Amino acid sequence: MAADKKHLTWGLILLISFIGVLILIFAPIYGQGQNGLEYSDDLFNKLAKGSAYQIPKLKKDAEKYKGKVLDVVVDVKRAGDKPGDAEKRAERLAKVFTINGAKAEVNGSKVHITADFGAIISAALEDSDQMYNNNGDYIKKKYDVTDDEKMKQMFRQWHNALNLVNKKLTLDKKAEDANFVKKVMTAAIEPAYNFYGIQAVKITEKAGVATGLLLFYVLYTIWYGFGVLYLFEGLGLSTKKAKVKKEV
Predict the structure, then answer these.
(1) Considering the entire predicted model, what is its pTM?
(2) Using one digit for the tens of pLDDT, what is the confidence trace for 77-92?
(3) What does the CA dihedral 210, 218, 24, 201 come to, rounded to 10 degrees?
(4) CA 83: distance to chain centroid?
(5) Do the beta carbons of residue 61 and residue 182 sit within 8 Å?
(6) Directed axis angle between helix 85-99 and helix 136-143, to 10°?
(7) Count of CB atoms within 10 A of residue 51's CB?
(8) Ramachandran bin of 73, using left for φ above 0, alpha for ψ from -120 to 50, beta for the remaining angles
(9) What CA–CA distances, in Å, run from 234 to 8, 81, 230?
């Protein structure tokens, strides 16, 4: 039995309308047959990609490293590798470096890399730029592969290799070089790989829609909260601490 019909009525109205809107959110009526969650997820992925483009600046920064020698030995072996896995990975890594003008000698799971530091980083940044702009055909042609999976596999070698190079430079106490390699990985290679296939959109192009979605999310959460609150109050349920009378 209702303890407070007014609050109970408002609670039911808010929760029923909340469910009605939820049904609309999951209906495939947005964008190109997407539901609301798919549409917003796609939009924010595009906006995230549009704000992650730092490659031009990194290309300029790489210029000061040109002429500097990079001479490291990296071991691509990983825990859990099956026989031959590390050797195949070493060959792929060496192929990427060799195609980009470096010297890479494979010895089992180890690769001895000798290169112009700035030039090899610039090559990694150029590949990242092409991937960022969804030009997978450039990578396929450059590394002589035909399908998207192998294309992504070849591009991943930049991340695999530079991660090992970063660790080696850190051990050798070459902090500046190690930090720059890390920056290239996180600000160029990772976004280029993770956002491949997504169209980049600048926040200025979708500011109104993005703001509207964020405001709707906040209001929709409050909407549900007040619905539950009014419903409980209408049913006489409360979280208020009961007052206990003191006996005299």
Answers:
(1) 0.81
(2) 998 989 999 999 999 9
(3) 10
(4) 32
(5) no
(6) 100
(7) 13
(8) beta
(9) 4, 62, 6
